[in-house]
Amino acid sequence: MRSVHRVVVVFFSILSLSQSRYSLQDAFKQIETQAIAASDAESISARHLLARLMNDALLNNTATTISNAVLGLQPQSNQALRMLDATGKPSSGILDGNVQFFGDYDECVNLGSDTAHYCIVATPLASAKYPYKLIVPLLQWGFCVNSTTDNDTIGNAVFDLLRKEFLVPTEYASATCYDEKSFTAFQIILITVFSLIGLVILFSTLYDIIVRAEKTFSTVPISLHVNQSSSSEMDDESEERNGLLNSSAKAEKKRDEKKEDVDSGLTGFFFAFSLARNLPKLLNVDVQSKEIQCLHGLRTLSMFWVILGHSYIWDQYGYTIANPLDAYTILRQFAFQAVANAFYSVDSFFFLSGVLVMYLSYQRMKANNGRFPWLAYYLHRLWRLTPAYMVVLLILWQLSPYFGDGPVWYQLSHSTKLCDSYWWTNLLYVNNFHPTNFSDECMGWTWYLANDMQMHVISPIIIIPAFAFGFIGLIIPLGICLTGVFLSLIIISSKYHFQANAILATNTLGNYQNLIYSKFYTRASPYLVGLFLGYCLARSASDQFKYHKFLRWMQKKKHIVAPVAWFVAFALGLVVIYGVYDYNRGNGHKYPEALSVMYLTFSTFLWGLALAILVFMCYTGHGGVINAILSWGGWIPLSRLTYSAYLVHPLVLTYIALSARSPVYFLHRVMVFRFVGAVGISYLFAMLLSLSIEYPCAAIEKVVRKSTICNRCTRKE
Q1: Fewer beta carbons below 10 Å: N end or C end of the chain?
Q2: pLDDT number for residue 587
């Protein structure tokens, strides 16, 4: 027991010094004095055991309050000793930032709610000299206390002990005590609705199978719902224009070819939930001749990149890392820059959105004699994105607190409370503007969806002139928009003196997220590049553009053009990803402000340009092995799940991080295993979300559209 005492003394002695990791001479003198004073403790009563563990000299009101809370009124009982045993104690690794003393959560909970409950006290070490300011170090200390102890009692006692007695640099200490949770009326209604959807899917699937079986026995062909729709994953992919949503990118499927696929009326609505119809669409790997096949691989790998980057930071945001200082030093590794700069994967999605919006809209307008489908353009997009989006939001907001438990599970309540106030901003796709603080958003990772929707809304000002006036009609509005993006970035980054890697390691992180990272007018450059490429691909796919002189020249000079193009693409990508390596090494190097402004202004544009070259080379037959990899048929089902995977993967990572019973030691191999697991589980839940919400909504939309067309035809007759 004396060894535990000395560990505690070492811990608080170190924290009471100047926060320097290397000024320990005075600490050792203080530790020696206190350890000698403690060596005469031969017998310790259970009543005062916790107080003695903290410091013999601190047998005052504060220490007594904590010991009473932990040991209760029967100090010699087995339950009291178990409560003490379940209470967190400092462990090794303090100098590496291990200030997570969770204790044994399950041992405390198993004592029963009538006897004890688990409380965790969190206090930020605001003045600790961590090399990066992305996350303020947080001391989290678990206590198993008697059931009558409330949050304020244990929180105030620990704060007084840390602040007044041990001189720990902290401004507050918040305590959360875990008690049994009960469902609200709204949550019960929500569970009931989700259960009914599950029953509808079950009965729809069973009935569909029975109908198919009857048709088989009556020798009626059953190619009805599988073969004829095999070339499309959601019955109407010509309308898909989102970087996360998959698109077969077909020119325009004739309406009379699709009428047989759709049941009308209530039958159509009922069969929309059938797994027997939706699952083959999801797993089908057929492609069309005019499809941009490499986008499947690019979309899927970009999603993997998103999950990889989040896997490395999610535990740090949850403060469940045992060696955070070692974790931060990983930023200094050259190879790790691809993970540290994983946020460019989102710019890949912006680029893909721009390509598909222009490519498909151009072909749609061509099929409709130049008419732009205003109503369908906006309503289709809202209908396809919003249902799955709102389902995940409701799960996070109302049901996720019941999915797990653990010492740091309390942190999930922060997200749910934000949704109490701001859920409506997600519904309106304005959550990147309100709330004004990026960290206050409900479902913080959905800032991308707000940006993408806003870019989608204004895209017709480029699409329509491009179709009507050709390259001149494209270049003028596109150039104006791109100039606006560049000017916004230059003005904001200059005014606030952002460094080139402002997203990673500066004290200006909050302002950067609020002013640049989450705003469409500063993130639109890869989207605009995508619009330009989409136009080029749409024109090259048309007969009158097939023999354009540039393509003929490129074909003649392919042995020169192809290597040069690939070199430029890879060079641009490497400059963007590894351009801030000197700063990330943590050697105190800072770029001149002009260079930082230039990087912040043009990095996302250059990334979009690199992707544009890649896609263009693959589409025109100069992709080689890269095109073979990106166009592999196995990517197609995963590509169709990208949108759902983007929505659900943070919930998976949150569960993994916040359900931890002990701090995780940060190692590459540990993070890789967590990443692989997160990918598998995320795509499993993404498939469930797609088959239960996304695909049925797409089928319902088609039923409604067919009914509308039939009504119009009836009126004309």
Answers
A1: C
A2: 62
